[in-house]
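ok trying again, last paste got cut off:
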Amino acid sequence: MDTGLLVARLFLGLPFIVWGYQKLRGGEAKIAPLIAALGVPDATALAYLVGLCELLGGLAVLLGYPVRTVGVLLGLWCLLTGYLEHRGNPTELMKNVTMAGGFFALAATGAGGLALFGGAPGGLLGWLR
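nice, full thing came through this time. structure:
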């Protein structure tokens, strides 16, 4: 089971690491106009923030900590971006819904034993799962 959860974390985390890295390395120019079309001020800064969230979220999933918290957040992220950006394209929308399901399943099961801190540290970091 631990190996299966590690593989699931790789498949779910790596795309977000790549997408976040790309946005932080100049790819923000592609999504800033999409963000600006939503009427959000300072779309470029928000595009960089999106890239940072994707990169850190993907790393957290890959490392397996705090996978329950990040799993819920990235699942909601996928549903929100699917609705806002892909509702006109059923294939892209279903891709986002499918990824959300994977993140919610990961949040429900946890990271498994092959994760940073075994997926559940003690001490001060124990509250963040």
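cool. Residues 2-127 form one domain. The mean pLDDT is 91.
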